[in-house]
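[job 4471] stage=fold_predict status=RUNNING
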Amino acid sequence: NLKPFQARRVLNKARETLPTEPAIWVTAAKLEEANDNAAMICKVMERAVKSLRSHGVTIDRDYWLKEAETAEKNEPPATVVCREIVRVTIGVGVEDEDRKRTWKADAEECR
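[job 4471] inference complete, writing structure tokens
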């Protein structure tokens, strides 16, 4: 299908032009989910964090968790995108000894 290919090209160009914009990465992940390409979502989100950091962006855990929540509430829900955002950002800025307490607080907020 040519449309996803064209959309990927536009998103890649957008990433080159605006390398510090996280929304482009989220959109790219959602495109992959919409096209049943779950395997790429993991790669897109891992690359997002790596690329954004390399461009001096501080990975704000709360921002990303809100993005995950938004993805989950999409119509249709982007549940794989949600899961992968959480997977790659849940530990950002959380010390090992604080993980259980922090993650428990996160779960309480989601109720």
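[job 4471] summary: The mean pLDDT is 93.
[job 4471] exit 0
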